[in-house]
Design goal:
Helix content is 76%, strand content 0%. It is mostly helical. The longest helix is centred in the last third of the chain and has 25 residues.
Amino acid sequence: MKKHIKTIALGLIPQIFGFLMDRAWTLPLPQIFWTILELLFLVGWGWLAYRIMKKEDRVMSNVVRMNAIGLIMLILVLVQELAVGQYWPNLFGLLPQFYFLSCLRPVYWLIDTVYGWISRASAGSVLATRVWAAELLEFILMIAATYIGSRRKQNG
């Protein structure tokens, strides 16, 4: 039980990283630096899953535990974006934004690339990117990184 709580608590790492990213963006560094840092975060998330996974554990239970806080943050984003129409002016509005800052640039690059393909294929129609869609994609990428790291450990 203790181990499960520790694994769930690791889900706070993206929150902390996003908060630090928010503070550090005022530094005069090129955009590519931030993009690479966020990609390294995603790789590090998979590596962390690899490190904490035990061979006797089930992969999906590790994925669920590591991303449980992310799921809560995603639900808060979806409620605020889709139902309320704005972020709440309190911690429940701020914390999900910090959580998803950890890997947002690569996600937007991916969305822009896919939208570019769709736009060329559909004679130039413009598709708008919503924040909740980008954060949903980021959550999926974090789940994928966790799954890959956990699976690699289990397969030895």
